[in-house]
Specification:
Elements: H1 3-13, H2 18-25, H3 29-46, H4 58-66, H5 72-81, H6 100-110, H7 115-129
Helix pairs in contact: 1-3, 2-3, 5-6
GO molecular function, one term: DNA-binding transcription factor activity
InterPro entries: RNA_pol_sigma70_r4 (IPR007630), RNA_pol_sigma_r3/r4-like (IPR013324)
Domain RNA polymerase sigma-70 region: 2-41
Amino acid sequence: MNERYQKSVELRDAGKTFKEIGVELNVSSGRAAQIYNKAMRLKRTEKSPPEWTHGLQTKVASSLLMSGYTSKEEVIEGLESGDIGLVRGTSKGKIFGIGRHAIADISIWAGVSTPEKKAINDAIILLKSHGYSIKEPDNVPKKAPI
């Protein structure tokens, strides 16, 4: 952020009006407001999410960060333990901002089995343990398209 933007933020934080900031910067009060607003936008965008969240949607990454997750390994543990999961009988997640679709996206990003695949595999194991033979249909793709 350049000197002009920093000065506008400092003056505004000190309680100055845009008219007073304009006098300091030698611009109109309207232009002072524009400079300040752009400085604030730049300040927000400088705060990018940590590198370990790359590949996730910003909203999902923010929800994980706000819930205290600090690494991909912690997220994988949360998925496996069920801490990152759905509230039983609903499509709402246990973490605010993370629902059924976000959990599937996180699972794919983390490289772990999605909840749906896990449930299917558990059902197949149960059926096989009771003597049923399971044959996968030929027309089902092995990997879901991303």
